Amino acid sequence: MTALVNSKILRIIVEGPDCSGKSTLVERLKNSLRWDSKYLRHKEGYQFTRYLKEYASQEHTVFDRGHFSEEVYSKMWRGGSPFHKKEKQILDNLVNYKRIVIFCCPTLKEIKKRYLARGFEQQISLEELKRSRELFMRYFKSIPHITYKSENYKELESLIKKIKKEVE
């Protein structure tokens, strides 16, 4: 599926499990487009209003994570979805308007390699990382997006060029 829209793109959301290449992609997009970037990690409070405000108030912004991550990690660590069904529908539909959603999804083998190469203790365990990848993959079956397999720099450069054409 593709998330490209005919009207001018104002926001990009980069999603996926830990160790999937999100931060590298966000940094490259931010610099190539000369846009802002914003990391949307979990914060306490009413999540629907928070994401609605973030998406509505930021233009020319590359988001590192979005409500998709909130959904996945809430299911894993907080016992369920932070959104009511209608709220989730609204947020999912909203990201189709003047936005591109990029789902970073390398192989499990590559994610594991990146995880083990990090020289610091991480919040997520290797088993949880596998589970989060499965949840993201299930979620993105129904969300228009661009898949980025994060396999090499050639793929990264190609994606950057594709996005630049779409937003300029």
Key structural traits:
168 residues, alpha/beta, Rossmann fold, 5-stranded parallel sheet, 7 helices, 49% helix, globular
Summarize this structure briefly.
The protein is of the alpha/beta class and 168 residues long. It has a five-stranded parallel β-sheet with strand order 2-3-1-4-5, covered by helices on one side.
Any chance you could write out the topology, listing elements then pairs?
Layout: E1 11-15, H1 22-33, E2 36-39, H2 47-57, E3 61-64, H3 67-77, H4 85-94, E4 99-104, H5 108-117, H6 126-139, E5 146-148, H7 153-167
Under CATH at level 1, the class stands as Alpha Beta
How many β strands by DSSP?
Answer: 5
CATH architecture: 3-Layer(aba) Sandwich
Major sheet: 5 strands, parallel
Strand content: 5-15%
Continuous helix count: 7
Structural class, from helix and strand content?
alpha/beta
